[in-house]
Amino acid sequence: MKYVYFPGCVTPQKENAYELSxxxxxxKFGIQLLDLEGANCxxxxxxxxxxxxATLLAARNLSLAEEKKCDLLTLCPACFGHLTKVKKELxxxxxxxxxxxxxxxxxxxxxxxxLEVKHFIKVLLVDVGITKIKRTITKPLTRLKVVxxxxxxxxxxxxxxxxxxxxxxxxxxxxxxxxxxxFLDYMExxxxxxxxxxxxxxxxxxxxxxxxxxxxxxxxADAIITVCPFCxxxxxxxxFTVQEEYSEExxxxxxxxxxxxxxxxxxxxxxxxxxxxxxxxxxILEIL
Amino acid sequence: MPENLKTIQVLKxxxxxxxxxxxxxxxxxxxxxxxxxxxFQCGKCTATCPIRRFDKEYTPRLIIxxxxxxxxxxxxxxxxxxxxxxxxxxxxxxxxxxxxxxIIRAIRNLAIEKGYIHPFFKxxxxxxxxxxxxxxxxxxxxxxxxxxxxxxxxxxxxxxxHTILQHTKVKKxxxxxxxxxx
Lengths: 288, 182
Fold this sequence. Notes:
The structure holds two protein chains of two kinds.
Chain A: E1 2-6, H1 10-14, H2 16-28, E2 32-35, H3 51-66, E3 72-74, H4 77-92, H5 94-105, E4 117-119, H6 120-128, H7 130-135, E5 145-149, H8 158-161, H9 171-177, E6 182-183, H10 202-218, E7 223-226, H11 229-246, E8 254-256, H12 257-264, H13 282-287
Parallel strand pairs in A: 1-2, 1-3, 3-4, 5-6, 5-7, 7-8
Helix pairs in contact in A: 2-12, 3-4, 4-5, 10-11
Chain B: H1 7-13, H2 23-29, H3 44-48, H4 50-54, H5 60-69, H6 72-77, H7 89-93, H8 100-113, H9 119-131, H10 139-148, H11 158-165, H12 170-174
């Protein structure tokens, strides 16, 4: 299995532990990752401004990846969603494709449309498979109780992403259960983390996160498992602000799914960047 | 201070002449805006919206209704169009197949063309237009990555990003006046 790794903006800037743990886990499955030199923002953040700009930015990334002749892998659901959407648009709308390729020709690039855009979760679930994942588990995390946080963009819009049913998602559930943990359900499983509006209305953004944290605390989970670097950043960094703002205590560790899987595969906390997490993860290690 | 999109204000403005019957067609012509005319105002979008759950001033149904009615200035200058978290809950559940998330995005595009932009969105877009990403490539990130045993992030080819963006309206749009913050 070989992929070209698209880093995006948030992961290398704020969530290097996610990439680190993904690379360690990927090694266990013999996944080979190629670097993508000179890539730009996927284009997602340009969408509210101008459609053509958002499309061109994505198309440049896709054409760079195509030069490597293998599928694109990303850790960010927003990049996954946007690149998937643009690929679909450029495949269906020949006029747009022509415009885009005329512009790309100026930088000697061309969108061909043959590669697939994959989030690491999709790679694990489809290309690797649960059976093979279970075979790599050497240290089942039976004493740990966790809940999933799916995030919005890994599931929706479901007609474009075709990964799971957003009304009752199970893909992350099954990946988490494979690590041997005690899996817990909670009321606000499907609620957004609030991160996307942090720059527009901070109070509201924190209010949404608080609702999530309260719901997780009620079921007495030891950790929340995420698959999105942006959701992770929000929970892990701004949890302290929520605690201050509402005079409440949560201190719930937030683990990237790849950190959880890595622990179950017998990898060390250092190898998985567990000490990079902002909410201390010592509690987790004590439980194990 | 730009006006807010509230029911009472929408009703009041119906008595005035601030109506542009072409507005809905303008939105429908934007990429992603096509499905707006299918809306039959059932309100499932509002009922399902996580933003609405915690902020009663945010009503996706009203944004669509006001757009269909042609209240162009009110919609485009409104604060609430910047509150959508793009979670797609409404889009998933709409019984009419109205893709609200995309429509609100199309409305934002039109608002920016009219000179209304939320400062946060302007900040992000400006960063992308200059650095090619929302964060500037900085040496300390590669030092940090090196300590963790990660390969360096290769710098964005900014000149290529600048070249492709020259073919878009983005430079001109970002020069527009800033929308006042609440």
